[in-house]
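[[Local backbone shapes]]
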Amino acid sequence: MSDAAVPVPGWAESPQVRYFFTWLMSPSGMAEAAAYRAAADDGTEGATRLRATLERLLAERPLSTTDWLRLTGYQFYGEDELYGFLTEVFAHYYEGAARPRLPDPDRWPPAEFWGPPLPGREPPELPELCDQPLPWFGPWYAEYASDRASQRAAVALRPAAVAGRDLAPVLRFETVYGPGEAALGQATARSVRPVGPPAADGAFTFESAVMDAGALAFAVFGPADGVPAAGPRRPGQLVSALEWAAPRPVIDPTTVPLAELGLDVPGVDRRFVHFCAGWLSANASDEFWELGRSFHLAWPDYRATVRTGLRHLVEHRPLDVDRWHDLTGVVFRDAHELSHYLADVRAYLGD
């Protein structure tokens, strides 16, 4: 967006105005916004221009939520929400009110934000098998050992999604926390299925997993509304659907050769393996409807590799149900049931 096209009064003339909106109002820069209050009202020309800019913004409301997303990388879900936040910003800087806080970026978007459902299509459903306990958790129930460990994974996964043009990034713990012992103790995991029959007192025993440098951090994202046609360019242009950790898997989606999965075909790359291990996993099955409503906003090459990979899986069936379970944690009775499910996924994503 050129300076002339930015609908912020004083944008082209004032470096202070540009700094205020592109950095201090961004999710990354908000932590410094409170310390800037004195400079915003110190009587200098830049401070005077900034106050006038905020007053005009609140009076005229020229900024759309898409404009704000492009300036700051943060998605508001309506202009009332955006200008309510700017009212709090003005009150903080000039009326002594408490520091404003951005709404939770992972809050649930309102129904109207996603638009109407895709006509004639429902999200694909995993089979209901009596011997498949808690399929939404997968074979392991894992949790981060602390908020700090969870936040470090989240901070690493979102930029990885943008850099890799990947809506289901997967990172090894050694990438997030460092090699060797640095990765130990960052998360814990136990099996969802009990090991053996219950004890005399009725208690079950569960298997514990080692969460070491080879453990994985997963996330699945959807593009936010208003992203460019070329796809998301900043972390703030992604809506987080789910994040989770898992022990070192039977099939590591970050390293398994495509040929080993029968996916070494033109048009398919590593991101499709991540898509299967992430978006088509037992963990993310309840969130898949979100991808159906925003998949058309993803990077064109990402959409192409997902569609090519799904077509190849349906038409050639290179993965049997055991290998699919090793990759995704989902149990299917037979190859026909798996192929039928993948065909539903293709249809839901518009292929």
Summary: The two ends are 33 Å apart (CA to CA).
